[in-house]
Amino acid sequence: MKKIVLCIVGIYSFTLLSARTSADSLIAERKDSLRISATSNFSGRLDRFSSSHFYQMTYIGVPLVVGGLIVKSEDDHFRSLRNDYMPRFDRHADDYMQYAPAAIMLGMKVAGVQSRSSWGRMIVSDAFSAILMGSVVNTLKRTTNVERPDGSNRHSFPSGHTATAFMTATMFNKEYGHKSPWIGVGAYSMATVTGLMRMANNKHWLSDVLTGAGIGILSTEIGYYLADLIFKEKGITRFANENVFERLDKPSFVSLYFGLNIPLSGYDIDEQTEFSTSSGSTAGVEGAYFFNPYIGAGGRFAVSNTSIIVNKDRAENNTFDAVSVSGGSYFSYPLSSRWLLGSKLLGGYVHYPQLKLADRMISARGGFSLGSGVSLTFKAKEHYGIRFFLDYNLLPSHSRNSGEYMNMLTLGASFMITL
After folding, report:
1. Entry's InterPro entries (predicted)?
2. Average pLDDT for 149-160
3. Which of 44, 157, 198, 260 sits at a 20 to 30 Å CA gap from 27?
């Protein structure tokens, strides 16, 4: 990223030329050394901050809570995705999955598998966590009075099921995460499925689920912190840190992709009608395989939903959907062993279902799309990370009567399993 250009001008005698060349070589080596030292110091400071106790307690929970508050205004769009693609979904596995990580943790403890904490310390840690989580969730439910998507009551925000699921997943990972990094991946995967099922069952908005997940994680982190203050070194087993981070690891990943759409342009349906979209939502999966630390290949499957505005002032009841599949090149630059700066260049196909407006029908259509973007990735654990991204997409028009393309930004986060 930084270039050092050394220019040597002039022709001298052989002796002076040799001396000058030698001096310039020493200067160049010194500058290269300073550059490497500065980069190393920056990477070290970044990793030290990322490894601090406060950061480790908050780096997932706080962004989830903040993200839940940010997307609250877009809840209708994410619900429209559910209504368009799974309107009759009705399963109750989430009622039991929220407790699955805790049940497995207790089963392993009863079986004599060594955990982080003794029975007494673990019970106190988990009791603090449950009391904190329950208090915050129930207080918010009673004070915010947010109506559930299905209209059953006004106790929607935040999701108690999701908070419980992420609380128990964090407990399980704290007690047995030293056994294998895949314990954390499995526990948080179950918690994520619980949250997604709450939305699919039409019981919660996306903002409820994100905020609930953040509360569950933060409550457990604080609960264990309080127990650590009380017990200190009593009843705890210290394990070697199995999370190994190398700056030049290949950053291959698979992730869940959530974002907010920000339209930059519209297009004309015909000469009399201008069609544009409001902000909206995108959800999907994304992954890439890296051949080395810098270059990889991958793709993304995503479903988007936005509201329609006609002639700048009339909002339509129906929403505008787009299903896209794209693939291409992914790029990464390691800022440190845990932070990565990324980009990509994708090409793909986007499909628009049939769209019914108040005064016309627009037929289904597909077309070629282009995409790019920038991202910042944090490797939280050896096989888990979070990526913040800003993507740009150039999309074909839905109407066959328009040759204009749409420009769309998507701002969001993806939750990653690193390979």
Report:
1. OMP/PagP_B-barrel (IPR011250), PAP2/HPO (IPR000326), PAP2/HPO_sf (IPR036938)
2. 94
3. 44
Exposed, middle or buried, 134 (CB in 10 Å: 0-12/13-18/19+)? middle
User: If you average pLDDT over residues 305-316, what whole number do you get?
Assistant: 64
Task: Say how far residue 268 (Cα) sits from the centre of its chain.
Answer: 34
Given a cut of 60, is residue 27 above it in pLDDT? no
Q: What is the mean pLDDT of residues 10-23?
A: 35
The most confident of the ranges 46-55, 166-175, 303-312 is 166-175
- Of 247, 144, 159, the C-alpha closest to 209 is 159
Instruction: Tell me: pLDDT of 162 over 80.
Output: yes
Q: CB neighbours (10 Å) of residue 242?
A: 12
pLDDT band at 410 (very low <50, low <70, confident <90, very high): very high
Mean pLDDT of all residues in 325-330 = 98
pLDDT at 82: 83
For 213, half-sphere exposure in the C-beta direction (CA atoms, 13 angstrom radius) is 26
Domains of the chain listed by start with CATH number = 1-44 (no CATH), 61-231 (no CATH), 253-418 (2.40.160.20)
Question: What are the beta bridge partners of residue 334?
Answer: 340
User: Residue type for 186, please?
Assistant: G
First to last CA, the chain: 26
Tell me what the pLDDT averaged over the chain comes to.
Answer: 83
How far apart, in whole angstroms, are the C-alpha atoms of residue 413 and residue 332? 17
Question: What is the pairing mode between strands 355-356 and 361-362?
Answer: antiparallel
**341, 310, 343: which is closest to 328 by C-alpha?**
343
Coil, helix or strand at residue 308: strand
What single-letter DSSP state applies at residue 117?
B
Angle at 406 between CA 397 and CA 316, to 5 degrees: 70
Checking if the pLDDT of 39 tops 70, the result is no
Measured distance CA(113)–CA(176) in Å, rounded: 9
Structure token digits, residue 24: 């310039």
CA 210 to CA 60: how far, in whole Å? 11
Assess whether pLDDT exceeds 90 at residue 156: yes
Residue 9 CA neighbour count, 13 Å, CB half: 2
List helix spans (H) across 291-360.
none
Q: Hey, what are 64's tokens? A: 């989830």
The mean pLDDT value for 239-265 works out to 83
Rg of the chain over CA atoms, in angstroms? 26
Q: Which two tokens stand for residue 38?
A: 């500065």
